[in-house]
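---------- Forwarded message ----------

FYI, see the DUF2490 domain-containing protein record below. Original note from H. follows.
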Amino acid sequence: MKESYRKLLFINLVILICNFEIKAQDQNQTGAWYMYFYNHQFSESQFGIQGDVQYRNWNIIGDLEQLLLRSGVTYKPKKADILFTLGYAYILSGALGDSDATTFENRIYQEALLPLKVGGRVYLINRFRYEQRFVDEQDFRTRYRYNLFINIPVNNKEFTKGTFYTALYNEIFINGQKDIGDGRNVEFFDRNRTYLGAGYVLNSKIKFQFGWMNQVTNSQGKGQLQFSMHHKF
């Protein structure tokens, strides 16, 4: 009975996400992000690697919004539950619609991940990220990001094989400066992303996740479907 109840909650969450997506389409065309995340801890070492590949579309598929390639070296202190990363990202951005125009960005970033378990089954991750951005035809820029991830297993207390889970996060972006060159300015507030999703643990190395994210900037808000694979190797 308890197992059926948990599965019902998971199904209702998926339906809720789809309803959010339909409402977003009423206001603006919904985009889609297809993402692969990876991480690896070197054997008997405090160092590792992590990164992601993201293919983002203005629509469901076919109209490139961004191609993001990101990877970094990680370091985990022996006596602290925290993970540090120093990394690099390349971002190719496309224009909305039929235009083939693109711009690019090179980015260096540093981040810290702090996990925390609350109660029996609520898993939190605090992520702090600082970016140094070299954007095409703009002056050097920096940006601060904070993300709170909340993951809750549904049919198990931990993320073991066969576990369904809910995934939520909220991330805020703050620009380090307003002047970006040639008399152009941006606001200190860059954007905010709020996400609601559902996931499934295939095994100890692979998880899949599907969800809906609403991104709000100073000029617009837009819904994004997100499909992701999370891989430990």
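H. also flagged this: The two ends are 36 Å apart (CA to CA).
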